[in-house]
Automatic annotation (TrEMBL):
<dbReference type="Pfam" id="PF00072">
    <property type="entry name" value="Response_reg"/>
</dbReference>
<dbReference type="InterPro" id="IPR001789">
    <property type="entry name" value="Sig_transdc_resp-reg_receiver"/>
</dbReference>
<dbReference type="InterPro" id="IPR036388">
    <property type="entry name" value="WH-like_DNA-bd_sf"/>
</dbReference>
<dbReference type="InterPro" id="IPR050595">
    <property type="entry name" value="Bact_response_regulator"/>
</dbReference>
<dbReference type="InterPro" id="IPR011006">
    <property type="entry name" value="CheY-like_superfamily"/>
</dbReference>
<feature type="modified residue" description="4-aspartylphosphate">
    <location>
        <position position="54"/>
    </location>
</feature>
<protein>
    <submittedName>
        <fullName>Response regulator NasT</fullName>
    </submittedName>
</protein>
<keyword id="KW-0597">Phosphoprotein</keyword>
<feature type="domain" description="Response regulatory">
    <location>
        <begin position="5"/>
        <end position="118"/>
    </location>
</feature>
Length: 205
C-alpha cells in the first residue's frame, strides 16, 4: 500500500532519478518531472498529495510551480535547493512551503522529512502543552526562520522510515520511548532528530 503520492521535480536528471528511486523504495507513489511545465501538467492529471520541488530550473522555476499548486490545486509543497540567500528565503516564506531543505542532502535525510510532511498534513500529532514547535529545517542546518515542521512530526517520520511502521505505530513507539527514558514527547523527538543529523555528517558512515 502506498504511503502517499508525491510529485518530485528537479532538472538534474541524476538527482531526480535518485530522489524518485529512494522515495519509491520508501513506499511512496512517485510522479517525476525534469521541468516546470511537465510538473504542472502531471500535477493536474495525478493530483499528488505533496510536491518536492527544486527551485532553480530552466523555464518555469520551482517557485512558479509552487504558486500554481497553491492557487489552483491546493497541493502542499516543500523545496529542496542549494540556495539559502535572503531573496530565496523570503520567497519560500511568501509561498508558504511546508519545509525547505538545503542541499546537499541524501535520501536517508529526505525520506524522513517527506514522511513528516505527510504526517503533518494528514494526522494531528500531539505535543506537550509547554513545548514550543522546533524548526525541522534547523535539524538540517537550514536557517531557523524558514517554514518548518514541528520536531515531533519529523521524529515520527524518522521512525516510520527506519522501522517501516505505519504512522500510528510510529507515534506510539515515540511515546513509549519518551516514557521509558523519562522525557517529554518533544524532548524525545529532538533526541531522535539530533541522532539522525549526527549520523548523516561526513565521516559518520
Amino acid at each position: 500500500m502506498s504511503k502517499g503520492k508525491i510529485l518530485v521535480v528537479d532538472d538534474d536528471r541524476l538527482v531526480l532519478a535518485t530522489l524518485s528511486y529512494g522515495l519509491t523504495q520508501a513506499g511512496f507513489e512517485v510522479i517525476d518531472a525534469d521541468n516546470g511545465d511537465d510538473a504542472i501538467l502531471l500535477a493536474r492529471e495525478h493530483r499528488p498529495e505533496l510536491a518536492l520541488l527544486d527551485i532553480r530550473m530552466e523555464g518555469l522555476t520551482g517557485f512558479d510551480v509552487a504558486a500554481y499548486l497553491r492557487e489552483y490545486l491546493q497541493t502542499p509543497f516543500m523545496f529542496l535547493s542549494a540556495f539559502a540567500d535572503e531573496a530565496t528565503v523570503a520567497k519560500v516564506k511568501e509561498l508558504g512551503a511546508v519545509a525547505y531543505l538545503v542541499k546537499p542532502l541524501d535520501i536517508s535525510q529526505i525520506v524522513p522529512a517527506v514522511e513528516a510532511a505527510f504526517a503533518r498534513s494528514t494526522t494531528p500529532v500531539p505535543t506537550a502543552p509547554a513545548a514550543a514547535p522546533a524548526a525541522m529545517a534547523e535539524a538540517f542546518e537550514a536557517p531557523s526562520e524558514l517554514p518548518a515542521l514541528d520536531m515531533t512530526a519529523l521524529a515520527v517520520g524518522v521512525l516510520m522510515h527506519r522501522y517501516s511502521l505505519p504512522r500510528d505505530e510510529a507515534l506510539a513507539r515515540l511515546m513509549s520511548l519518551a516514557s521509558a527514558d523519562g522525557h517529554s514527547l518533544p524532548e524525545q523527538a529532538r533526541r531522535i532528530v539530533d541522532a539522525l543529523e549526527l549520523l548523516a555528517r561526513p565521516g559518520a558512515r
